[in-house]
């Protein structure tokens, strides 16, 4: 059974600061790792995903994430946040056995950006 | 770009009545559709996976009798919540999978049961 853990429930930073949102997973097989953003009352917006190749993947709006097999991690980073980045961020893993359509989500990290 | 439209955005229904929601993939062909429910506590549950011309696979605790799904083509899917009660409330999300194995979600259909 695959699991996804986001260790920080809430993160608060000032506008212009950098931020790292942490994600650790447990699964030994072929997987996709993804990040999604959910603004209040809205649906899930796809940010980026990793399957293979360069462990650093670039996403939308300046976000990037780095895969580490040794740490079983896929942390999300942004160099300079904007107040509009305030939202809940979900890390997710999907496996080949489900045709990559079944996502297991982390608990979510609520990011608050103070203007 | 890849977009997923869901309709309606929100429904308030009386306990015991039903709600139908629709999902439309725009700009890509959805090789499969996954219906999720996000609880008020923000956790996600997969309801079912649907692939055109294949049987719909329901997860444990979800049944076709309660959540019938129609998936007639590569761009459209619908799901109904029959006999809705308080425990069925939440945000129902449709995720459409692209050929590149990215799952794109719509804005969701929020079910409020009174």
Based on the model shown, name its key terms.
heterodimer, A: 115 residues, Immunoglobulin-like, four-stranded antiparallel sheet, 52% strand, globular, B: 114 residues, mainly beta
Could you walk me through the main structural features you see in this protein, from its secondary elements to its overall organization?
The complex is a heterodimer of chains A (115) and B (114). Chain A has strands spanning 3-5, 10-14, 19-21, 24-26, 31-38, 45-50, 56-58, 64-68, 73-78, 87-95, 103-105, 109-114. Chain A has 115 residues and is mainly β. Chain A has a single domain (3-114), classed as Sandwich (Immunoglobulin-like). In chain A, the strands form three sheets. In chain A, strands 2, 5, 6, 10, 11 and 12 form a six-stranded mixed beta sheet that branches. In chain A, a hairpin with a 7-residue loop joins β10 (87-95) and β11 (103-105). The radius of gyration of chain A is 14 Å and the shape is globular. The mean pLDDT of chain A is 93. Chain B has a single domain (3-113), classed as Immunoglobulin-like (Sandwich), CATH 2.60.40. In chain B, strands 2, 4, 5, 6, 9, 10 and 11 form a seven-stranded mixed beta sheet that branches. In chain B, a hairpin with a 5-residue loop joins β4 and β5. In chain B, 37% of the residues are buried. The interface between A and B is medium-sized, with 22 and 23 residues.
């Amino acid at each position: 059974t695959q699991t996804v853990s986001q260790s920080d429930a809430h993160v608060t930073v000032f506008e212009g600061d950098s931020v790292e949102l942490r994600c650790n997973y447990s699964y030994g097989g072929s997987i996709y790792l993804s990040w999604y953003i959910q603004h209040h009352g809205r649906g899930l917006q796809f940010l980026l995903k990793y399957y293979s190749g360069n462990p650093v993947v670039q996403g939308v709006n300046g976000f990037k994430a780095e895969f580490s097999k040794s740490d079983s991690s896929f942390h999300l980073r942004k160099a300079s946040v904007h107040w509009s980045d305030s939202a809940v961020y979900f890390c997710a893993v999907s496996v080949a056995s489900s045709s990559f359509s079944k996502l297991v989500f982390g608990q979510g990290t609520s990011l608050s950006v103070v203007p | 770009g890849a977009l997923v439209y869901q309709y309606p955005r929100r429904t308030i229904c009386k306990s015991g009545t039903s709600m139908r929601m629709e999902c439309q993939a725009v700009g890509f062909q959805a090789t499969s559709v996954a219906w999720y429910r996000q609880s008020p506590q923000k956790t996600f549950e997969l309801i079912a996976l649907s692939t055109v011309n294949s049987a719909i696979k329901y997860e444990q605790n979800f049944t076709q009798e309660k959540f019938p799904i129609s998936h007639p083509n590569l761009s459209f899917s619908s799901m109904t919540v029959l006999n809705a009660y308080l425990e069925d409330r939440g945000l129902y999300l449709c995720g459409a999978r692209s050929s590149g194995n990215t799952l794109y979600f719509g804005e969701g259909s929020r079910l409020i049961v009174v």
